[in-house]
Design a protein that fits this description.
It is built from 13 helices and 3 strands. With about 325 residues, it is mainly α. Helix 2 crosses helix 4, helix 6 packs antiparallel against helix 8 and helix 6 crosses helix 10.
Amino acid sequence: MKINDLIINYIEYRQSLGEKFRTNSNYLKAFSRAVGLQKEVKAVSSEEISCFLYGVGPVTSAWFAKYTALAGFYQYAVSRGFLDRSPMPMDMPKRPPAFLPYIYTRNELKLLFDSALTYQKNRSHIQPYMIRMLLLILYSTGLRLNEALSLTMKNINLSELIIKVEQTKFYKSRLVPFSSQLAKEIEAYLKWRKKQEFPQDPAAPFFYGRDDKSLNSATVEDVFLRIRKKAGIQRTDNARYQPRLHDLRHTFAVHRLMSWYQENANVQQLLPTLSVYMGHTYLSATSVYLTMTKDLLQEAGRRFENYARRNNNG
């Protein structure tokens, strides 16, 4: 059987189980193109697989993501009788250092929001005010970028202070409450949006791009890079990556946790609530976003000191 045909069968099989399977699907299709769409499954060698895995440049986390995608595919191929054994290479490279998300300070957030209005050197179809609203929502609610860009007019309920996020990463919908402060920003944005004569029907994209479609995620990522540089925000910790747009979601989670500590709330009891709010199925997925910053350590330390003092006094 041709490698491309079997890969398509495998992708359809995984999606029939209720998985979106987007990232693995993209890796598998890229692998099919790399070895030749019409190549027989049995003719693909371990050397060709290794060549695809390593690519050019240093080993990154992408190596392991590609390996996982291919390992699943070849397990499927063996189980269906297309191969006697998997040709996946057995030797694994050393994992790169753990990725460290960037947690923006509140001053840096203000710089980002302000720079969103002034980053453009030449006017384009992308409205700076719209980009600023997008950044505000991403930070204030912790939404994923694709979730925010998929919002339509009917998903925003100003009277109830709720955003309805539909068909998320795990095919689930959820309600995301937001603050009255964000509501004022959204209300002003809606008035501006109407003034721009963007479509007002319920199904219209909340963040309007070209051709009656929502803003494109790749375009937004590129815009954010320019905004970050305009704001003068960069890492000084020798980490591999500069601050990203997705780090707003990490920042949301850390700032929320800090606020709970400062309010002397029961953090352990509230963590599952944060997990649901962020659209996670398991609490372990939320823990990825809780980077231990200096401020968070101080708040945790203060909480422990108070706890220890009460026990000693007792």
